[in-house]
């Protein structure tokens, strides 16, 4: 192994918590202009809208990269009596603590002041939404 960095060499790419470089074999040397793309690990999901590639810049520095992956629940549960709110429908990343609300479906009326909702829990499952919508046909 080399003990010194060649001119214009960035060294190993930055370590990430929920992602690793996507290529199995990384070269020993990263000249200026080299790019390394990261993929999610350990069940983490890609955070929409964030870049996932670093580039070796002049000065032997990697470009800054925020963690491109994170822990997220899968899509919220579908309910017989309620549909996801428009706002929740547009979301595609659900970190721990995310709360989504539902709207009673046609044929169901809300039986309380609050809307049914569900929260992404620490174990990446959803809390059970309260059945706050009652069929109008009972």
Automatic annotation (TrEMBL):
<feature type="domain" description="Sushi">
    <location>
        <begin position="71"/>
        <end position="135"/>
    </location>
</feature>
<keyword id="KW-0677">Repeat</keyword>
<keyword id="KW-0732">Signal</keyword>
<dbReference type="InterPro" id="IPR051277">
    <property type="entry name" value="SEZ6_CSMD_C4BPB_Regulators"/>
</dbReference>
<protein>
    <submittedName>
        <fullName>DAF2 factor</fullName>
    </submittedName>
</protein>
<keyword id="KW-0768">Sushi</keyword>
<keyword id="KW-1015">Disulfide bond</keyword>
<dbReference type="InterPro" id="IPR035976">
    <property type="entry name" value="Sushi/SCR/CCP_sf"/>
</dbReference>
<dbReference type="Pfam" id="PF00084">
    <property type="entry name" value="Sushi"/>
</dbReference>
<dbReference type="InterPro" id="IPR000436">
    <property type="entry name" value="Sushi_SCR_CCP_dom"/>
</dbReference>
């Amino acid at each position: 192994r080399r003990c010194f960095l060649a001119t214009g060499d960035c060294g190993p790419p930055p370590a990430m918590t929920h992602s690793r470089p996507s290529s199995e074999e990384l070269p020993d040397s990263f000249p200026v202009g080299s790019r390394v793309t990261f993929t999610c690990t350990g069940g983490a999901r890609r955070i929409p809208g964030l870049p996932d590639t670093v580039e070796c810049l002049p000065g032997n520095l990697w470009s800054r990269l925020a963690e491109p992956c994170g822990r997220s629940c899968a899509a919220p549960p579908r309910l017989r009596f309620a549909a996801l709110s428009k706002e929740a429908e547009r979301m595609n990343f659900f970190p721990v603590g995310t709360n989504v609300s539902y709207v009673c479906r046609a044929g169901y009326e809300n039986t309380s002041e609050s809307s049914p909702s569900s929260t992404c829990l620490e174990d990446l499952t959803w809390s059970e939404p309260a059945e706050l919508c009652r069929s109008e046909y009972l």
